[in-house]
Automatic annotation (TrEMBL):
Gene3D superfamilies assigned to the protein according to its UniProt record, in alphabetical order: Spore Coat Polysaccharide Biosynthesis Protein SpsA, Chain A
Record keywords: Nucleotidyltransferase, Transferase
Family according to the record: Belongs to the UDPGP type 2 family.
Domain of life: Bacteria
Reaction(s) the record says it catalyses: alpha-D-glucose 1-phosphate + UTP + H(+) = UDP-alpha-D-glucose + diphosphate
Entry's Gene Ontology molecular function annotations: UTP:glucose-1-phosphate uridylyltransferase activity
UniProt keyword Nuclease, yes or no: no
Listed name of the protein: UTP--glucose-1-phosphate uridylyltransferase
Entry keyword Nucleotidyltransferase: yes
InterPro entries membership: GalU_uridylyltTrfase_bac/arc, NTP_transferase_dom, Nucleotide-diphossugar_trans
Length: 181
């Protein structure tokens, strides 16, 4: 079904639970790498080693600046089995060939068909690249991450900043008074 819309063109996948804020949009950063290598490209950022089991993790080969050649990808590995602490951040430039691979892989982590597992298969036959994304990432699939995203993005908006700062000051004052009691 998707192939009818995409045809033979590369396409972007942006997972909705990851919000990126940066001067150069994350997708533009990935497109630059794709334009150099014409192959699957994933957005990555380092994560705390204790959090690697929440993400697809890459094993890197050659590196040039913010770009890595990917040697392997593992979906949600245990910390002791993780090849790095560089995690896929829900931003991808893919080619239509990924659909064929997705049809052939079995269920992976969480008993789901995992895009990371399909990319792992692709990686065995041709190069995949990763771009360490510049900017801030917010995981809005996490309650606190969602709160942080709303707050930080609100503070970036000129019309929201004064109201949001006044509100946060009010909350902090009220909480301080509660602690004193």
């Amino acid at each position: 079904m998707c192939g009818a819309f995409i045809g033979d063109e590369p396409f972007a996948v942006l997972l909705g639970d990851d919000i990126m804020v940066s001067d150069t949009p994350a997708l533009s950063q990935l497109i630059d790498v794709y334009n150099q290598h014409a192959t699957e490209t994933v957005g990555v950022q380092p994560v705390d080693p204790a959090d690697v089991s929440k993400y697809g993790i890459i094993q890197t080969g050659r590196q040039g600046g913010h770009v890595y050649q990917v040697e392997d990808l593992i979906e949600k590995p245990a910390v002791e089995k993780a090849p790095s602490h560089i995690a896929v951040m829900g931003r991808y430039i893919l080619t239509p060939a990924i659909f064929k691979t997705l049809k052939t892989i079995g269920r992976g982590a969480g008993n789901e068909i995992q895009l990371t597992d399909a990319l792992r298969e692709v990686c065995r036959t041709r190069s995949i690249y990763a771009r360490e994304l510049e900017g801030s990432r917010f995981d809005i699939g996490d309650k606190f991450g969602c709160f942080k995203a709303g707050t930080e993005i609100g503070l970036l908006r000129e019309e929201m900043r004064p109201k949001l700062l006044a509100y946060l000051e009010e909350v902090l004052k009220r909480e301080s008074e509660e602690i004193v009691r």
